[in-house]
Amino acid sequence: MARLEINGVTKKFGTTTAVDTFSLDVGDGELVCLLGPSGSGKSTVLRMIGGFETPTGGSIRIDGEEVARLPPEKRPTTMVFQSHALWSHMTVAGNIGFGLKLRRLPKKEIAEKVDQVLELVGLAGYGKRQTNQLSGGQQQRVALARSLVLEPKILLLDEPFASLDQHLRERLREEVRDIQQRLKITALFVTHGQDEALALADRIVVMRDGHIEQIDRPDVLYREPQTPFVAGFIGTMNFVEGQVRNGMFAGGGMTMGVPVAEGPATLAVRPEALSLSGALAPDAATVHRVVDFGTHAIVDLDLPNEVRAKAMVSPDHEWKGADRVVLKPERFALFRDNAVLYRSQPSAIQTARHAQ
Fold this sequence. Notes:
6-stranded mixed sheet, alpha+beta, 6-stranded antiparallel sheet
């Protein structure tokens, strides 16, 4: 296991700043996901940790040792890339054992380590196969095994499942999480998929334009986003613009009491926290369509001022297109000036923290 400390790291490409004063501490055996849209700087951060990019400024320490200027082969890290990057002229065992061969380990020891890691990734007995005889998922397992066999202190994964179909991606990410926990290895995982981050991570770093928007546990990010960007990027969120006057927020046909200063505000409410009731009120919303997912249904709603919202309802719902409904947020947050202005009720997370 290992501890990673990143302090004020910046990376510029010419006049473009890809990463700006990025700081993060990763504990022993922790799996941290770097999450963000394309161009947010998450892969650049990972490449700087692995030694494939040199920081313009800042420090990167592994177990207290500065590594920011060391080449990749001198660092206690290995990286699994999106492309498998396997050598087609080598067998599976040859691909996995190549790094050990460069370290001049005895052949017998290499063979033993390769067999052990093949069993770990669920490919026992596949050592003599050619890589072109494997499926995409099996090839990615070989790429993972090639990194793990080197026994790195820190495992880096750069969107390794992006090219795989959804079912295989879900299965492999569960396997990677199991392996990571079994080995108790420190790991950083880059993805732009929120579901992947929520399923894998101990903590998630949400990035935007080279900056950190928020670092927290998955449950905290979902329930207590600190900025509108995080609120919209993690899960599905309804945003409604409105005004606070005389202690009341009004927007999108909804009104509610809020103890905040007057002015513009943005209401943020999750689909599962938006309840519906039938009404003929002039400011009522209109059901646009209903999509049944079996376990639940999603109601698409047309609000006043051409705003579209979503509500999650039970599968035995009564709603249909053109129905008029009144919306009531059960839990919500208000944002102003890119920050949280008010939360309607303390979450279980906040309550637990207060109790501590």
